[in-house]
Structure formats: C-alpha cells, structure tokens
Amino acid sequence: MDETTDSRAAEAAREAGLDRAHEALRAQARAEAQVLASILQVVENALAHPEIEVPLGITGEKALNHAERSAILGLSLELALSQDQIRSRLTEARILSRLLPQTWCRVRGFVSFSGGNVDPVSNPTTRADLWAPRHP
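The chain above was modelled as a monomer; its predicted structure follows.
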C-alpha cells in the first residue's frame, strides 16, 4: 500500500465515523422529543382527569395543582429522574407545544419538513394561560 491509499482509507474511516456520530445524535434528539411529548401527555392527562390522581373531596384549582404534582412525582419515580428534571422537561414541552406549535409538531414527527397542516394554537396572553391545561 502506498501513502495515498492509506490517506484515502483514513479519510473514509473518518467520514464513516462522523456519519455514525451524526445519526446517533439525530436518534438521540428523536428520543428526547419522545420523552418530552410523553411527559406532557401524562401531565395533561392528569390535569384533564384529576380524579385519577386526586383524593376525593379535593376540587377546583387545588385539585389541578395536586394532580400535576402527583403526575410529576409518578413520572419521577417511573423514569428515575428527579422531579426538577421532570419539571424542566415539562416546561420545555409546554413552551414548544403552546408557543411554537409547528416546531412542536415537527419535533413529534407529525409534519414533514416540506410542510403540512398544523392546528393553530392561540398565543397565550398571560403566564397563567401558558400553564393552563389544554383540552383537545
């Protein structure tokens, strides 16, 4: 083998390694998007049906707060993540889903990057609107 052949082989090995690393990062991003979507789904389900998470007799805003805290605790235990990590990911998912609905749909894989129809989400006007449960 001459030096040119060795250089080409080394270059090809480098490119193959970079391709594998890029694909792994894309897979990691897709997996993280699925985690965000799943956390949001679990918490929004708890808010839509607080009776699942809340003891009888607790109603109104207190029931919603309790349902969200209970869902976060359950996710924390099931996923072996701290409650702060769950809250952080929940915040990311809420921001993406409510303020950037097209990006959120793309993250979740519902819309191709060439375009598509997305149900519009009205922009919240207050911080409370951003955190309020959405009901389909």
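The CA atoms of residues 111 and 117 lie 7 Å apart.
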